[in-house]
Each structure stands twice: as structure tokens, then as C-alpha cells.
Amino acid sequence: MATVHKLAVGPWRAIIETAFYANSVRKTSIAELYKLATKQPEIIVTSEPMYKPELFGLPRNAKVLVSQDGKVVGRTARARRLVREMGKDKDMYQGILREAVYQFNRREGLWLEGIVGLHPDFMLKAHLLSPVTDAKNMMDWGFNFTPWMEPWISTYKKSRVINEPDILVFADPEWSHPGFPDGLVIVDDIENCIAILGMRYFGERKKGTLTLAWTCGVRHNMVACHGGIKKIGNKPPVAVFGLSGSGKSSITNSHDHEGTLKKSEKVTVIHDDAFLIDLDNNLSVALEPSLFDKTDSVEFRDPQIKYFFTAQNVAVTSLPDGTKRLVAYDVRNRNGRCIKSRDMFNHADACERPGKVIWLQKDPSLPPICKMKSVGLAVAMGASLSTMRAKGVENVDPEELKKLVIEPFANPFRVHPLLRDCQQFKNLFKMGTECYVMNTYAFGMPGNLVDIPKELSLKIVTELVRGNIQWRDWKSFQGLQIPKNSKELFGPDYDKKYKPHRDPEYLEYLRDRIQDRINYLSNKRDTDHDMDNAFIGPLVEVRTVLDRTLNPNLGL
User: Fold this and answer.
1) How many angstroms separate the CA atoms of 390 and 243, rounded?
2) 331 with 252: CB under 8 angstroms?
3) d(CA 521, CA 133)
4) Rounded to whole angstroms, what are the CA distances from 164 to 64, 111, 186, 187?
């Protein structure tokens, strides 16, 4: 098994690992972290009962604790620095990290051990080092992954040996530096270690840990997946890929698809955020036992609060009886969050590889559902996945929230080369997995958009899994197919609202959106040297057909 100590390490891991052994650091447990968190000045002890606290060695009367992060309540991607991209700045960043560790070790520090991965095929030991003043975030990290305690230790000891060093996470929210007002995240994916400095938001710790786990999986012929995966009845699993706000969790976690599923079509959720597909063993493995979900749709005294372990950036009110209750709906701030149990629906830790992959895109030029005819186009559309940033999920300028962005395979946390993801998804599709694109936003031209409701998206997934959708070629978009029997399945007004037409203005708009994808991937090829023409060519062919349609005399 991998251990935290490893001889012949690089300087980044050596700096971070050494910090664990200072006199000021001691190992801790979920039980101790809960006690410490209840005494943190900024923490609120609510009257909401914590779900099954005894699982973690906590008292049966433990309550949901709420933390508030201040101004920043989302991820800050611009703070991330990859070791392999630092170049001549490496010495500077190593000096910053050494000083950060020195200042940290002069305070009381805690060391929490955990496990990433829920199946014996893939389990990695992980370690979090933080100041005692950050006990709530440490406890949440333990809830989000798996704390180093029984029965999980026994499962880990029987798991497949993976030749990787343990994951090391060093997080100090009290760090500050005039040169990095937004904080600093240093990632060494080769040595499986990360430093998260000057950042309170829990999501930085969660996604930083997942980043390293995904990278380990890719090194062992797995597909890194920022998405959700579920089984419906006895059909092959369905995987949906999308950023927060794309409908990823809504589609994955729905148990009845707004009433369109029959009772016999039982839903089994694997996870709605992070998993790995093992191409060698026909296995999809969840990485986290719980869900880190938004609370913007959680009502006051909502029944689902029963399943909460903890909450972050959620308002609290006091009732006449003296109890303190959660007030969600993002009334206090955007991106309120909770960590909750998957027990709120039927779930499993693993399943076979997906039979269908769906790219969830927020691209108004695309209808609600399309099917890929070729492996090449399936990879190209995933590598150029187009979406909009979810409000509050990232710490970005408000103007940026209005713009469409491209995020390959909906995974902004990838640190391994994009080409590797392209090759892994290519291998998956060559094994027979089908690929689709779902637009979950709105369809049409700017200024004349028709919303695509969540109910329609769920109905589409239902009919997709049943195999009831008949397909016809979309002549304007070579390689894509659209439903032929949409009126029968989705209502008489489906075609009126969502059928792509051949109006020149729309085709020009569609052509420009395809060119956006080509430009993005070409830039990855020319500037980052992280793309291949084989994954750009299918989009170029699509654009060429559109050019011929718009300008028949070009003779292309």
C-alpha cells in the first residue's frame, strides 16, 4: 500500500510532507474536530440534527454546523499554479511555500487522514494538514471523503495496490501575501501534493483533493470524470458531464425524472460529481461517499435537511421556540452549500462503464438533444464543451458570468494534459459507449431564446435510456443526429420551439459557434501544444459543410 512517507521525493512534496512532522502538529479525528468546530467563533451550531453522526464516532445529538466564508463564497481558479508550468519561477514559489510552512508550523496544526475512492479497485489514502482554527473545514473534508476509521480502514487494506504516493493536502486559510491577494494554490500532480494558501472556501480543498485523485486514475488507464453517473433499471449506466449549474446534479439525482419513469425503472445513483471509469476492468468508481450540493432550492424545514452532515454559506434564523434553523434559497449569498448523505436516494459505490455519455452544454445554437455519429466528433464536442459559468460557484468578475466559456469535458480541475483526456474518451467510445449532447439552457438566436426546462431534459433522458428516440441526420451539422419522433415523445410544440431551421441568419450563428470551438482547440494545439488535429478535424468538416451551404459559389 502507498504510505505518506516516500523516499526520493521532489522538493514540493518534501516541503509539504515535512510540515506534517513539526512539534506543533498532531493527528486528529472527526470526533475531536466536531468539538473544536463547535467552539470556533464564526461557526453556528444549529438545531438541525446531523444525519447519522454515530457513523463518524460523534454523539447522537450532534447538530449541523454552519460556516460562513466572508466575501468569497466560490472557487478562485486564477489562484492555481501548476508546478510543471512554473518554469523559471519555481525557485520563487518554493521560497513562498517554505515560508508558508514555517509560519504555519509556529501555530497549532492538525493532521487528518482519509480515503479517496469507494471501491477496492481504486482507493487512495489522503492526508489534510490545517491549523486548529480551521477545524470545521477539516471536519467537512472528512465527511466529503472517507475518514480514516473503521469500517473503511479494513476495506482500504484489502483494496488493489496502486503504485502511487498518498495524497497530501496542506491548507492554511490564514496565510496572506501582498503578491497574491486572491490566495495561492500550488499543485504538483506528479508527487500527489497540493498547497492551498489564503483560501477559506471548502470547495478548494475538495476539488484540490479530487484533482490529484483524477490524475492518479488517468495514470492507471482510467477516465477522469467530473460528472454524474446512474443506472436506470437494468439498462447500462448513463453518465452526464457538466459544470455546476448545467443540470448535472438535477439529472443524476432525480429518482423519477419528474414522474416520467415507471416504478420498475429503479434509479441507482453512483455519484453526481466525481468518478473514474476503469477501462481495463469495465468499472465506474465513485470517489466520494457524500454529496457536496448547492442549497439554492432547499426550502425552509425541507425534508432533505434530514440528510445533512454540515453546511456552508447558508443563512440561519432563530424561531420563537429558541431553535436555530437553516434558511437556504441563497438569500444570504450565492452558492450556499451542504454536505449530505446519498441515503436520500438509492445508491451504490460502483457500476459498469457507462453505455451512454451525455455532454451537458449551454449553447443556444444547439437543440435540446443530439446524437453523435462518429467517435471523432464525440471527442471533439466534449473537448470543446460550451457552457456558462454558474453564478457564485467561481470567484470571477460579474461580467464574465454573462459570457459563454469552453471547458473541456466540463473539468476545470484537470491538471494532466488535455490530449490524455481526449485519448481516454476516444478509447471509451471505441468500446461501444454512445455519445450525446444535451443543451440544458435555451435554444435560438440571441434576443429570441426559448428556454429548455428541466422537466424536458429529464424526459429526454428517460426516452434516451428506453431507446425510444428515433434519429435522423441533421443536414446542417454533419455528424449529428436529431430526434425524428420528437412530437410523439416530447409534445406537439417541440419542433416549433426547438427544431433547427435553415434560415441563413441562424446557420451563420451556428457556424460561428462551431468556429469558436475550432479556435479554442487550435489555440490549445498552437499555444499549449496540448491538442491534436485528429480532434479538431471533425469540427472543421462540420464548418466546411456549413460554409458550402451559406456560400454555394465558394467551391470549397
Assistant:
1) 8
2) no
3) 44
4) 35, 20, 19, 16
Report angle CA 293, 295, 301 to the nearest 5 degrees: 125
CB 376 within 8 A of CB 538: yes
Cell of 15: 516541503
Place of cell 469558436: 516
Beta bridge partners of 109: 25, 131
What are the φ/ψ torsions at residue 155 (nearest 5 degrees)?
Answer: -65, -40
Q: Name the fold adopted by 11-32+78-220.
A: Phosphoenolpyruvate Carboxykinase; domain 1 (3.40.449)
Give domain limits for the chain: 11-32+78-220, 224-289+349-502, 506-554
Q: 120 preceded by cis ω (within 30°)?
A: no
Q: Which fold has domain 224-289+349-502?
A: Phosphoenolpyruvate Carboxykinase; domain 3 (3.90.228)
Strand 109-119 to strand 146-147: parallel, antiparallel, or no bridges (unpaired)?
antiparallel
Cβ-contact 454, 250 below 8 angstroms: yes
Q: How does pLDDT run along the chain (556 residues), one tens digit per residue? A: 444 445 558 999 999 999 999 999 999 999 999 999 999 999 999 999 999 999 999 999 999 999 999 999 999 999 999 999 999 999 999 999 999 999 999 999 999 999 999 999 999 999 999 999 999 999 999 999 999 999 999 999 999 999 999 999 999 999 999 999 999 999 999 999 999 999 999 999 999 999 999 999 999 999 999 999 999 999 999 999 988 788 999 999 999 999 999 999 999 999 999 999 999 999 999 999 999 999 999 999 999 999 999 999 999 999 999 999 999 999 999 999 999 999 999 999 999 999 999 999 999 999 999 999 999 999 999 999 998 655 555 565 655 544 568 999 999 999 999 999 999 999 999 999 999 999 999 999 988 999 999 999 999 999 999 999 999 999 999 999 999 999 999 999 999 999 998 999 999 999 999 999 999 999 999 999 999 999 999 999 999 999 999 988 765 4
* Closest by CA position to 122, among listed 258, 285, 266: 285
Residue pair 434/359 in contact by the 8 Å Cβ criterion: no
CB 230 within 8 A of CB 289: no
**DSSP track, 10-42:** -HHHHHHHHHTTSTTEEE--HHHHHHHHHH-TT
Exposure string of 19-28, with b = 16+ CB inside 10 Å and e = fewer, is bbebeebeeb
200 CB-near residues (< 8 Å, 6+ apart)? 69, 70, 72, 137, 173
Residue type, 294: K
Give the integer Cα–Cα distance in Å for 273 and 436.
19
Q: Parallel, antiparallel, or unpaired: how do β-strands 308-312 and 448-451 relate? A: unpaired
In this structure, what C-alpha cell is assigned to residue 132?
A: 486548529
Beta pairing class for 283-286 and 350-351: antiparallel
Residues 6+ away with beta carbon under 8 Å from 106? 24
**146/114 Cα distance (integer angstroms):** 5
Distance CA 327, CA 333 (A): 11
Which pTM does this prediction carry? Answer: 0.94
Q: Is 327 helix (H, G, I), strand (E, B) or coil?
A: strand
